[in-house]
Amino acid sequence: MTTAALIVAAGRGRRAGGPFPKQWREIAGAPVAEHTLRAFEEHGLIGLIAIVLHPDDLTGGNAFQARGIRVAHGGADRAESVRNGLAALAGQGVDKVLIHDVARPCVTRDVISGVIAALEDEPGAAPALAVTDALWQGANGFVTGTQDRAGLYRAQTPQGFHYDAICAAHAAHPGGAADDVEVARAAGMRVAIVPGDEDNLKITLPGDFDRADRILRARNGH
Ligand SMILES: Nc1ccn([C@@H]2O[C@H](COP(=O)(O)OP(=O)(O)OP(=O)(O)O)[C@@H](O)[C@H]2O)c(=O)n1
Ligand SMILES: C[C@](O)(CO)[C@H](O)COP(=O)(O)O
After folding, report:
1. C-beta separation of 40 from 51 below 8 A
2. Alpha carbon of 68 to ligand 1 centroid (Å)
3. 69 pocket-lining for ligand 1 (C-beta < 6 Å)
4. Whole-structure pTM over 0.95, yes or no?
5. Which of 52, 77, 109, 140: disulfide with 81, CB 3.0–4.6 Å?
6. How far apart (Å, rounded) are the C-alpha atoms in residues 103 and 11?
7. Which among 115, 113, 190 has a CA at the least distance from the CA of 156?
8. Predicted ipTM > 0.85
């Protein structure tokens, strides 16, 4: 049986700005998507990779296919892109799948390993970091209240699942989920929390490119 990685890369990166989507912008000597793919290609326990591309980006799909990566068409939202990617993995002997944002190029080997290890015992597992800062509510530039931080986590990807179970969960979900953990839980699946990493940021806003660039250059000794 095979553990697959499903990289969702069909977003437009509107919050990050720039002339083209954030996954194609270069940091630390390569496009964001390339760093993300390499993290999974170089992990010895990942047997198959699929990437989901926006229809405007599909011409770039041939180069991915040439290196053995399956290519799926992006959907109108993240969940639809995930469903298309899961379908592209059907019939390939996949029993576990790690669903990862292309916009998290600094994912570490340890985070990937932690998710895979937890899937030996649980149907779902995902990395997260406990919230350590105090939390406030605010309005119009002033603090209006405080929020208990106990038991709160910052979610990351890759979010890993037993393949058949997450396919069924996505097929049954009405839509609007923030991530695949929400979809899985709606279907009654248990999802274990495994250690995330501060470096596993999602490039979301313009300033995130520099931070990811610094992390990757430091890791590669530049
Ligand atoms: N229709 C969509 C929307 C998002 N994604 C992917 O889901 C992840 C979610 O991260 P996010 O920061 O929300 O990405 P974008 O949708 O690209 O960003 P924005 O919301 O700023 O436009 C990204 O890897 C993105 O490429 C996708 O595959 N298909
Ligand atoms: C899947 C995710 O990365 C978990 O942190 C996140 O939900 C992606 O989308 P968002 O729009 O930035 O919340």
Report:
1. no
2. 23
3. no
4. yes
5. 52
6. 9
7. 115
8. yes
Ligand 2 atom nearest residue 101's Cα: 3
* Residue 78 Cβ < 6 Å to ligand 1: yes
- SS3 call for 53: strand
The best mutation among 129, 157, 183 to test binding of ligand 2, ranked by most ligand atoms within 8 Å of the C-beta, falls on: 157
The closest residue, in CA terms, to atom 10 on ligand 2 is: 178
Q: Could you list the residue range(s) of the whole structural domain that residue 73 is in?
A: 2-219
The CATH number assigned to the domain holding 185 equals 3.90.550.10
Ligand 1 atom at minimum distance from 102 CA: 24
> Which of 148, 144, 111, 114 minimizes the C-alpha distance to 131?
148
Amino acid in position 134: A
Q: Please, what are the averages of pLDDT over each run of 10 residues along the chain (222 residues)?
A: 97 97 98 98 98 94 95 97 98 98 98 98 98 98 98 98 98 95 98 98 98 96 76
CA pseudo-torsion sign 118, 119, 125, 126: positive
| Ligand 1 atom with minimal separation from the 16 CA | 21
Q: Which ligand is nearest to the CA of 18?
A: 1
Domain total in the chain: 1
Task: Determine if ligand 2 sits within 6 Å of the CB of residue 205.
Answer: no
Q: How far is the CA of 27 from the centre of ligand 1 (A)?
A: 18
